[in-house]
Amino acid sequence: MATVELTTGNFEQLTHAEGIALIDFWAEWCGPCRAFAPVFDAASDRHPDILFGKVDTEAETALASAHRITSIPTLMVVRDGVLVYRQPGALAEPQLELLIEKARELDMDDVRRQLANTATP
């Protein structure tokens, strides 16, 4: 599956659906972003059931700001509408595959329970 360009117009709809979304915040001028792009694209081919989206931080400054992106690349993982991972830095293929495996293994009922407990004063 090819990666999808995420914009302010489609971000919420695509990333808050059921399933897993991997989001790469990047910019054309960023060397580490360009080095990570083939790894991200290859993973999207191996995992067609996952949404692989890219946010060009230069074109989508409002999205980058809303998600407090201060370093690129930044990778986010959203599962069933819940942000479960956010970290700056490019990953090598084995680390990205491990991250995908861990995202698949999450018990989302437990994740939601934990979030509800931390939100309660």
Describe this structure in words.
The protein has 121 residues and is α/β, with parallel strands linked by helices. It has one domain (4-119): Glutaredoxin. It contains 5 helices and 5 strands. The protein has helices spanning 11-15, 31-46, 61-66, 93-105, 108-119, and strands at 4-5, 20-26, 51-56, 74-79, 82-88. The chain has a 5-stranded mixed beta sheet with strand order 1-3-2-4-5. The longest helix has 16 residues, at 31-46. The protein is globular and about 40 Å long. It starts with a strand and ends with a helix. It comes from Homoserinimonas aerilata. Residues 1-105 form the Thioredoxin domain. This is Thioredoxin. Keywords: Disulfide bond, Electron transport, Redox-active center, Transport. Belongs to the thioredoxin family.
Count of the domains? 1
CATH superfamily: Glutaredoxin
Radius of gyration: 14 Å
Residue share in helices?
Answer: 40-55%
Brief account:
With 121 residues, the protein is of the alpha/beta class.
Topology:
Blueprint: E1 4-5, H1 11-15, E2 20-26, H2 31-46, E3 51-56, H3 61-66, E4 74-79, E5 82-88, H4 93-105, H5 108-119
Parallel strand pairs: 1-3, 2-3
Antiparallel strand pairs: 2-4, 4-5
Family: Belongs to the thioredoxin family.
Domain Thioredoxin: 1-105
Protein name: Thioredoxin
